[in-house]
User: What shape does this take?
Amino acid sequence: MWCDLDDEVGVEGCGDAFEQGSGSASWTESCTTAMWYSPGMEASAAIERINALLDASGPETSNTSMRIPTALRDAAAFAVRELGVASSATALTSAALRASLEAVVMQAALDEHYAHHPQARPDLGDLAVAAAEIDGHPLAVEPERLRRAAAEIAGHHPDASPDDVLLWAEARALPAA
Amino acid sequence: MTRLVVLDNEAVQAIQDPLHRKHRQVMSHAQVVAIRKRSAVAIKIVIPAAVRVEAGWDRTSRAWVLLNRLRIADIPLDAANANTAAAIRSRTGVSVADVHLGAVIQSASAEQITVITSDPGDIRRVAGDKNITVAAI
Assistant: This one.
């Protein structure tokens, strides 16, 4: 292990701190040791590397100097002790971090695919239909109604989620009182 | 609540091939899973090993790069699943891939199971009494 989590650690080293904001990502240099990727690393290679690290499920662990807000640490400890949400605060933190990274890398893989195949990118209507199908929502059998709802909501709320569309379509389907 | 999304052979083919007529549809399912994961929903996509074999999905091949990156977990055909699958096959006569899929459904502990499939009929047959959601493609 070459550097601590404040420097964003890889198994074989570390690189630049990766900061993800609202829909955009930026890199800030902070590591003083050898990098396993460069700031200009292809997203594709980063996805591969993160996936490989997530798949490496060996027993090796590391102490880190990762700094987290004290209140958050205390909340995690309290949740473990009083609610039994995990075997330890460390286990809770690791699980949350893994889930977060899996979400990030999955979206990065999809985004890269959309960049090469723009026609594959689903629109809000497609996503609403897919969400309904995954959930077994009654409106899954009415995809055109969902697409209309998506078109209506997208005009006013460009950041609407597929679940927002389902809710809107469901409300629109209710008989007037 | 944990949710499981299981892919069948055609769902795999549809993701793998950007020119497949159902590509965008199944990409929509994958995108919804990604959105849900980002919202901290306990949801994951899995592939029964026998379905992966039937689909020809070799994780060491660059031809399968997108699927390899989507955090889709293999469910092995272990001894317990093989027994369940054999019983399903005796009862239904459907393909080995589909009976493995049935065994995965029947042994899953997830509260909600969704199968993305081009053959809803066979999937309901192999699911037995298990309550599942079928997303037909």
Observations:
- Chain B touches chain A at residues 3, 5, 18, 23-25, 27-35, 37-38, 40, 42, 66, 68-71, 112, 114, 116, 133, 135-136 (CB under 8 Å).
- Chain B has a mean pLDDT of 96.
- Helices of chain B lie at 9-16, 23-38, 49-55, 65-69, 79-92, 96-107, 120-127.
- Strands of chain B lie at 3-7, 43-48, 73-75, 112-117, 133-136.
